[in-house]
Amino acid sequence: MPELPEVETTRRGLLPNLSGRSFQKAVIRNPSLRWPVPMHLSSRLKGQLVSTIERRGKYLLFRCNSGTLMIHLGMSGSLRIVSSEEPPMKHDHIDLIFNSGDVLRYHDPRRFGSFHWIKNGQEHPLLASLGPEPLSEKFDGNYLFEQSRRRSISVKQFIMDGKIVVGVGNIYASEALFLSGIRPGNASKRISRERYFKLAASIKIVLQSAIKQGGTTLRDFVGASGLPGYFSLKLNVYGRQGRKCNLCQAIIRCKVLGQRASFYCKECQKN
Description:
Elements: H1 4-18, E1 23-28, H2 41-45, E2 52-56, E3 59-63, E4 67-72, E5 78-82, E6 92-98, E7 103-107, E8 114-119, H3 125-128, H4 141-148, H5 155-159, H6 170-180, H7 193-213, E9 252-257, E10 260-265
Antiparallel strand pairs: 1-6, 2-3, 3-4, 4-8, 5-7, 6-7, 9-10
């Protein structure tokens, strides 16, 4: 699944190429995504000038004259700029065509992404309940400690809750907990304030590193350039069950928490 670094990498790749361009139309080959693509999307986009592209959590926000195009990449979605002469391939469900002739093509094998049009002055319900950005100043150890006091769920499930903090998915939650020395199954309410400061700092380090590397090379993800990310080359625990820890040589273990595989080192993450 594209997580925050993958979405941010996509945003940074698209911004210099599409800012200041106008939408001409949308070609919808398959509207059956997580939610049906609005049939009026093409008419709403026509003539809309993209002033900037922002990110909120895992949502891409194309800010335009009279509204915002909001895109979520879902489980396997990707966006890339292609020539108008390049024929669509299997799973290329939507083309956003610009007045320049460039085509922003949406590819999604699992069809779990979404497209939404938000009028100016409105807030989409999907954005209303989101927690703070993990790279913002608001997100720190104090915030995590206070939010966790009445939570019995595991600390990994806690930091993956989008109402607590956005964009910390399975990969980076596992990696941040490893850097913090915290077992993913520990009850969130039992983690001390001091350790939450370390965890918040670790989340920032892991995400910033992943953004710098261009995301993770996991199955379907590619950046806006069409090239895969490379952060998976530096993963410490995620997807390494049965292999030796890079630090202590103990065997990496896997435990299912909240129906998600959680990877950890029993020696480096003792409590």
